[in-house]
Specification:
The chain has 310 residues and is α/β, with parallel strands linked by helices. The protein has helices at 102-113, 143-150, 162-175, 203-210, 231-245, 258-270, and strands at residues 2-8, 14-18, 43-50, 65-69, 72-74, 78-80, 86-93, 121-127, 133-140, 185-192, 215-221, 248-251, 273-277, 291-295, 305-307.
């Protein structure tokens, strides 16, 4: 399943889309397999766990997690709640609607970058229309390069191509492969008003592609100033980007909320579980599967909620 993207970044970085298909079957690993022992066909899930107040929970034992694929229970072969290296993209809408918020957006983005650990790496993309998708900073682990790149962001006119920007950014991130035996968490932090005016790709194509990746999307949406007729569609798109990928959406954000939002994004990305399983034989023939992660109730604790990509 391979096709060429119609999107070209302004610095001439060509994008090509591909699907990661869950096919084939390997021998099950021991239940205590480590990330370094994972087989190539193991399905890796990054799972956030929250309490009823959406606060991260980091002490849920493996035996309380339950994984199903197309309704069939799966054996967890890899489990870790340790922090893993992070590869992410900052994707910033620089259309006119963001003008009064740009300085606050840059400040919040710098807060995220400043939490990077030595093995983390990130890139920065600004976007307006499809012909104004620019990689301001290529992938780097150098914080100073990322901070300098954020200072170069500026507002420009044009019809916002939000879907194209997410598609191209996710495609760029999906191409980045970890070293053999290494697990990396992948995420996009998207800042936008949520309105798509002139994308080449349709939403269905975007979500079909996202379904083939392990990318989480964290959305900061400035939707309050949108025209009333545009707002429902924008809200639906932003919420779905977060829900389908196991990320989180912060909608109707204001300038004053950007600092606590950036702190919540940092906390969410850092406090996750890595769960891996090898698909069972009866479930390995189809290309796409419905995966669900749940947590068994404990009478001694309040309910725990597992969040991962759909």
């Amino acid at each position: 399943a391979r096709f060429m993207s119609r999107i070209t970044f302004s610095n001439r970085v060509q994008m090509s889309a591909f699907a990661l298909l869950f096919a084939g079957i390997l021998v099950f690993l021991p239940i205590h397999a480590t990330p370094q022992e994972q087989p190539e066909k193991m399905v890796i899930l990054q799972v956030r766990v929250t309490d009823a107040h959406k606060k991260p929970v980091t002490d849920v034992p493996q035996e309380r997690f339950q994984v199903t694929e197309d309704g069939v229970p799966q054996t967890i072969a890899l489990f870790s709640n340790k922090e893993v290296p992070l590869t992410y993209g900052l994707v910033v809408d620089c259309s006119g609607s963001i003008r009064p918020l740009l300085s606050a957006v840059i400040g919040a983005s710098k807060r995220i970058v400043n939490t990077n650990l030595p093995e983390d790496e990130a890139f920065l993309i600004r976007f307006i229309s499809s012909d104004k998708l620019t990689v301001v900073q290529e992938l780097t682990s150098d914080k100073e390069q990322l901070l300098d790149a954020l200072d170069k962001l500026y507002i420009e006119g044009g019809e916002t191509a939000l879907i194209d920007a997410v598609y191209a950014s996710a495609e760029k991130l999906a191409k980045l492969k970890p070293q053999p035996g290494q697990i990396r968490r992948k995420a996009l932090v998207l800042v936008t008003d949520g309105e798509d005016r002139n994308s080449y790709y349709k939403a269905d194509a975007l979500f079909k592609f996202l379904g083939t990746t392990d990318i989480q999307i964290y959305v900061v949406g400035f939707t309050d100033e949108l025209p009333q007729k545009s707002k429902p569609q924008a809200l639906a798109l932003l919420n779905r980007l977060a829900l389908d990928t196991g990320g989180r959406a912060f909608i109707s954000a204001s300038r004053n909320e950007l600092t606590p939002i950036s702190e919540q994004i940092i906390q969410d990305i850092r406090t996750q579980y890595t769960i891996g399983y090898v698909p069972s034989k009866n479930n390995a023939n189809n290309n796409f599967h419905k995966v669900q992660v749940s947590i068994a109730d404990d009478p001694a604790q309040e309910k725990r909620i597992a969040v991962t990509r759909l």
